[in-house]
Amino acid sequence: MTTGSPARAALIALDWGTSSLRAYRLDGTGRTLDTRHLPWGIMRLPQPLQDGAATNALSGFELAFDQACGDWLRAEPSLPVIACGMVGSAQGWQEAAYLDVPVDLERIGTLLTKVERPGATPVHIVPGLIQRHGLPNVMRGEETQVFGVMFDQSRAPDHHPADSVLIGLPGTHSKWVNARRGRVTHFDTFMTGEVYAALRGHTILGRTMADAPAADMAAFERGVKVAGSPAGRAGVLSTIFSTRALGLTGDLAPASQADYLSGLLIGHEVASLAQMLRQQGEQPRIVLCGEPALCQRYILAMQHYELGTPEQAQNATERGLWHLAVCAGLVNAAGAPSITSSTASA
Amino acid sequence: MTTGSPARAALIALDWGTSSLRAYRLDGTGRTLDTRHLPWGIMRLPQPLQDGAATNALSGFELAFDQACGDWLRAEPSLPVIACGMVGSAQGWQEAAYLDVPVDLERIGTLLTKVERPGATPVHIVPGLIQRHGLPNVMRGEETQVFGVMFDQSRAPDHHPADSVLIGLPGTHSKWVNARRGRVTHFDTFMTGEVYAALRGHTILGRTMADAPAADMAAFERGVKVAGSPAGRAGVLSTIFSTRALGLTGDLAPASQADYLSGLLIGHEVASLAQMLRQQGEQPRIVLCGEPALCQRYILAMQHYELGTPEQAQNATERGLWHLAVCAGLVNAAGAPSITSSTASA
C-alpha cells in the first residue's frame, strides 16, 4: 500500500472482484498516482461492528471502500469514483446491468449504475456483458480490461480499425473475447483456474502432490503436450487422472505434479481454442492480459498449439476504468481519442 | 447389517475401498448368505484406543475387520478371506502388486498378497492392474468387478469367446475396460464423479444450486446434449460455466443446476468414448456395472451418443471375489467353469 501523494488527482478507480479490491488514484491524463491492494473482495468484506449502540454501523462495502480510498476523498472531496467487477453482481454493493453482446465498447461507459451514498460521493459501477446466443455466457470486470486493451490497440502504430482481435484474459475464469472496430462480438469462458484449485485442493490428485521450491516448467510443458496427444482425445476428465498414475509409476515426482496438472488444463483450454479458430478459418491478432507468470504459461501453450506468440497488454484495468470514466463524462478529457477510429488516436 | 445365518459358509469376501467396506459371507456355490456395509473405508478407519495400558491396541484395519466379519470367523474359524480394493494400496493394510495390462483375468487370482495375522486367519488381497503403454493408468477393485462381469458373460447363452466387450464401471472414477477372451487389453479412467463433487462443493457453480426434491432428468438430458453440441466443442472446462450463466439468464432453476452439471460431465465422458470407438472402428458389446441410478444416467447418455442400450451386470464384485478365490484355490469348487472358454460354462 502506498500513501497519498500531493499531486492533484482526477479520478478514483476501483477493480473490485470476488476475492480482492484494487484502488487506483489517477491524474487528469489517466496516469496512475497511487495503487492500493486490499483483501476485501465482495465475498470477504470486513465485518461491521455490531454492538447495541451502533445501529448505524457502516456496511462491509462502506468499510472496505473507506479503507481503499476514504483518505483520498477527504483530501479531494470532488473526485468522481468508478468501479468494475463483481461489486456490480447480485451479491455486490448494488446490481449493475448486463449489456447484450454484440456491443460497442463505448456504450458501456454511458450505462453506469450509480450507488447513491447520502452526503457522500456516489460510486459508478460498470455494467457486465451477457451473451444470449448459443450457450449463454457472462462477464463482470473483464469488459473493463477489454476496453483498456482495445484502447491501447487503437493507439498502436500498425493499427487497422477493421482488424479483429482475440483478447485472452487468463485467470480463475479465463475469458477469450473477440472484438472488432471497438465492438465485442463474442466471448468464451473456461473455468480453468478454479477447476485447477478444486482438483488440487479437493480431489485425490492433490493428495500425492508436494510443494515445489520453484515452478517446474518442464512438467508444465509435458502436461500441455499430453492434452493434444492421442491420449488427450479422451478429454480432460480422463487425462487429469494421469497426474496420479504417472506418480504411481514413478514417472512424475510429487513436486512436479501440480505443474503437470496446470499444463494439462491450460493445454486442453488452448487446444480447444486453436481448434475453434481453425474451424472458423480465422487467425486474429491475439493479445493476452493477466498476471505475468500465468500469461507465460499460456504463451508456452499457444506456441505449442501453433497460435504464435501473442502480444501482452499491461495495466488494462486501470486504463479501461479511466477511459470508461471519460465516456461517462465523469472526468473532463477534451479531445480524448475514440477507440472506434484510428484517426482519432493521434 | 444382517446377523449371521446358521447356513454353512465357504468364503468371506471383502470389497474394501477408500470410503466404505462391504463384507460378504458366501456359501460353497458362491451364493451370498449375508452382506454388511460399514463406513470404514481405508481413509476413515475406526480409531484404536490409545491409553497407556493398551500398547497392543488393534490397528484401525484390525478393528474394522473385526466389525465386518469377526463373528463370522469365530463361528467358522476355518473360512478363508479375500479382499479387493484400496485396502491393497500403499495407504492400505498391505500393498498388493499391480499386474501389467494386457493380462489374463485368471492370472489375477493366482497372485494374491497375503496379510499374515499371527494366530488369526490371513487376508488375501487381490492385485490391481496397471497399464504402462501410452498414458499410464491404474485400477484397484475394478479388476474384481471386471472378473465378475466376464464370468457372467461367459455363461450367457449367446456368448462367443472371441467377442470383445467394453465394460463400463461408472463411479467416483469411471473405468471403461476393454476385454476379449478373458483378457483385459486396455482401460481408460474418467474422474467424472469426483470432479462433479469438487465442482459442486468447491467452486462458484455450487453457490447457485439448490437441493432438489427429486432428480431432474430433463435438466440432466439437456446437459448431456450440450456436451455434444457445437458449443460443447470448447470442452468441459468451458461448458460447465453455462450451469451458472443459464441460471443468471433465468433459463435453469437453482434446483435443476446440479443435474444439468451431472449431464454435462457424463455427456462429455460418453461423447469422448463414442468418438474413440468410432476412430477405432469398433462396436463392442457394452456392459455397465454400478449403482443403478447412476447407470441409468449413463444409459441415457449412451443412447444419445448412439452407443445403443448396454447390458447391465448385477453383483459383479461378490461374484468376482468368489471366482478369484476359486482361481486362487482358497475355496474348493471342483469343475468350476473357466471364463476363457464357453464350452466350460455348460
From TrEMBL, chains A, B:
InterPro entries: DGOK, DGOK_C, DGOK_N. Pfam families: DGOK. This is 2-dehydro-3-deoxygalactonokinase. It comes from Achromobacter seleniivolatilans.
